[in-house]
Structures are given as structure tokens and as C-alpha cells.
Write a structure and sequence with these properties.
Blueprint: H1 7-10, H2 16-35, H3 48-53, H4 62-70, H5 74-80, H6 83-105, H7 115-130
Helix pairs in contact: 4-5
Length: 142
């Protein structure tokens, strides 16, 4: 049996302050990104890996892809960094799953299995390598 939690009690739960701070930081970052075009040269710093080695990291083009997604340009977002739109869909699906699970069952959803972060890291590594392979230009930032 669960007891109702008052709004004051909800902020006393462990980690609630971090969640609120993270939400505020994310909202500020998205607001800044939505109003400052990364396609304009010099508006954001360049990738350190790319500027020092000429290789694309898994995040290269990610800022431009996020900006394009925020402005409804999905095709350009895929052209800048194909991982960003897929990650955005996965995050939205995960959040909706957690919300739906909690509302239907009254308890928080089970934690992700331990292999999930390993798989995400491995996928990022493979993506970073493949986007630098000659002939795979469709993975490089446009």
C-alpha cells in the first residue's frame, strides 16, 4: 500500500534536488540552443578531437543536429549526426515508459539491466569508428 506524498514531501525524496537541478539546467541549455544557431561559424567551440586529429567523434555535428530537430528539420538533423534523432526518440520512449509504468502499477519501473550502459558505450565507439571509414561519408557531419 502506498501513501500519498505531499508536494513538500516529494522534494524531500533522495535525489529530488538533483532531478530538479538537472531539469532546470536542461531547460536552460535547450533555450540557449534554440536561440543561438550553431550553423553560424564561431557561435560554438569546435570539436577538440576534430580540430587536433581531423577525425570525427561520435558527437560531432550533434549540436547542429539538436538545433535542427528543435526547429523541425529532421532530414538535416540526420545529415548532421544520425545518432541524435535516434537517441531523442529512445529518450522520449524511455521517459514515457517510466511514466506509464508508474501510473499503471503505482511503483517505479525497474532499473535498466547492467548491460544497457555497456551496449550504449560500445555503440558510440563503433559509430565513432564507422563515421571515419572512407566511403561511409553518410555518417560524417555534413
Amino acid at each position: 500500500m502506498t501513501s500519498p506524498v505531499s508536494s513538500a514531501g516529494a522534494l524531500r525524496r533522495p535525489g529530488a534536488g538533483f532531478a530538479v537541478a538537472g531539469a532546470v539546467a536542461a531547460a536552460g541549455a535547450l533555450t540557449y540552443l534554440g536561440t543561438h544557431d550553431p550553423h553560424v561559424a564561431g557561435s560554438y567551440p569546435t570539436c577538440i578531437l576534430y580540430s587536433s586529429t581531423g577525425l570525427y567523434c561520435p558527437a560531432c555535428g550533434g549540436t547542429r543536429a539538436a538545433y535542427d530537430l528543435m526547429h523541425g528539420d529532421v532530414a538535416d538533423a540526420f545529415a548532421r549526426n544520425p545518432a541524435v534523432p535516434m537517441i531523442a526518440v529512445a529518450v522520449v520512449a524511455w521517459v514515457l515508459y517510466r511514466i506509464t509504468y508508474r501510473r499503471r502499477r503505482g511503483t517505479s519501473a525497474p532499473a535498466a539491466p547492467a548491460w544497457v550502459p555497456v551496449a550504449i558505450g560500445f555503440s558510440a565507439l563503433v559509430f565513432g569508428v564507422l563515421r571515419n571509414v572512407p566511403g561511409w561519408d553518410w555518417l560524417s557531419p555534413a
